[in-house]
Amino acid sequence: MFEPPEEKQEVIEAYDRRASGYDLAVKWFDVSARFGFNISGWRRQAVGQLNLKPGDTIVDIGCGTGLNFPMIYEAVGSQGTIIGVDLSEAMLAEARQMALANGWENVQLVCADATQFEFPPQVDAVISAFTLILVPGAERVIARAVESLVPGGRLVILDMAWPRWCPLWWRHVLFFLRSYGVTAEVLRRRSWEAVQQVLHERLSDLFERQYWFGFFYLAAGTVPEREIV
Fold it and tell me: How do the domains of the chain map onto residue ranges?
């Protein structure tokens, strides 16, 4: 039987433990919205950047408990398709319960490593929220996501970063990081820089915004029309 690498296994276990209370924890974080720490508001902005329309197919990488799904479903409707991908079976169980409770029959859930997930061809949009920082080689995931998108398709990333002005030991002040898999090793590889480089190289109409002193960012872009050879 396949055994995931130690770092990946730690991430799975961390999110399996927190799956049942994850949504409530996010709501507690939103209490800090008055200080600019507004996770739910950033999610709404991220989904808004997708420019979704009824009938669209979208892949949500690291969908977790499905926090993006209500906003996505409102945009794509019952004729659209929502494909949620996550490494944690427990998180997906929460997402599945949400879909069942709302009668959303167009939600497909896949338990997979983002680096090994086979993107379906010709999707209209891809989103990833608070996931890629945890994925070694995240830039390769983004490159493959771009290849799966139709011309004019949108790719949106909402994630954490670590501003260069901030010493790494400050991670101890942000006490919640370790419990969500954001370790010193994760921060040192600065995967967000490689992700953003791919976005700049492969997409047009780029939109970029930083939140909360640069510890979080939103980046979005459009797949350009491909030249006919």
Answer: 6-222
Contact at 8 Å (CB) between 76 and 58? yes
Task: Return the HEC string of the chain.
Answer: CCCCCHHHHHHHHHHHHHHHHHHHHHHHHHHHHHHCCCHHHHHHHHHHCCCCCCCCEEEEECCCCCCCHHHHHHHHCCCCEEEEEECCHHHHHHHHHHHHHHCCCCEEEEECCCCCCCCCCCEEEEEEECCHHHCCCHHHHHHHHHHHEEEEEEEEEEEECCCCCCCHHHHHCCCCCHHHCCCHHHHHCCHHHHHHHHHHHHCEEEEEEEEHHHCEEEEEEECCCCCCC
75-88: pLDDT as tens digits: 999 999 999 999 99
Pick the CATH number of 6-222 from 3.30.70.1620, 3.20.20.140, 3.40.50.150, 3.30.390.50: 3.40.50.150
Question: How confident is the model over 38-81, as pLDDT tens digits?
Answer: 889 999 999 999 999 999 999 999 999 999 999 999 999 999 99
Nearest residue to 173 (alpha-carbon basis) of 164, 182, 39, 111: 182
For residue 114, give the amino acid letter.
A
| Residue 229: pLDDT band with limits 50, 70, 90 | very low
Distances (CA, A) of 140 to 30, 161, 186, 194: 32, 18, 16, 9
